[in-house]
Write a structure and sequence with these properties.
three-stranded antiparallel beta sheet; 180 residues; 19% helix; 3 helices
């Protein structure tokens, strides 16, 4: 480890993430530190775009990092050894109380390549009407929205979650409901 610019190494660790500060040599020869957030599970996590009766189910979730409420799709970290499709199914059950009738992999995404080292698998799911939301996870409610309503939400600046935007983009490009 370089003798300047430290400390380096693991800064924080819990069951979900590890925060590391790495020494980096810049093109000009200087040494500095870069922080990375790494998922504890190799597969990172999953986010799933639930569709019920031709409408997308979004949850209203409070996020501590932004200190704001966000419209987003269910998502979460994978447990160690848990495949991403099982994470997606679990998150649907935990966050909106439904099982996936159909589950289709949409692709992989990196939410923030400037700080996060893990990738998340995106899925599309056909679901029955949601039964409840997980208030204990900071979720206050949900909405079922058609494509025009999703566009309006984004146009107003009220849809900013990167996982949700990426999943919608993938589903639209594939022509999956409700974007048929």
């Amino acid at each position: 480890m370089p003798s300047t610019g430290g400390p380096y190494g693991v800064c924080y660790q819990d069951p979900y993430i590890t925060v590391v500060r790495d020494p980096v040599e810049f093109p000009g020869g200087g040494i500095g530190g870069h922080v990375r957030v790494l998922p504890a599970a190799r597969d990172g996590g999953a986010a799933v775009l639930p569709v019920c009766d031709g409408r997308v189910v979004l949850i209203r979730h409070f996020r501590h990092s932004t200190r704001q409420w966000h419209w987003e799709i269910p998502r979460g970290f994978s447990a160690p050894g848990e495949p991403p499709d099982e994470t997606a199914r679990r998150e649907l059950r935990e966050e909106i109380g439904v099982a996936a009738r159909d589950l289709t992999r949409l692709g992989r995404m990196h939410a923030d390549t400037g700080i996060t080292g893990g990738a998340v698998e995106l899925f599309w799911a056909r679901v029955d009407p949601p039964g409840r939301v997980a208030a204990d996870e900071g979720i206050e409610g949900l909405a079922l929205l058609d494509p025009r309503e999703l566009d309006d939400l984004q146009d107003r600046g009220d849809l900013t979650d990167s996982f949700t935007l990426a999943a919608i983009l993938h589903a639209r490009r594939r022509g999956l409901p409700p974007f048929v």
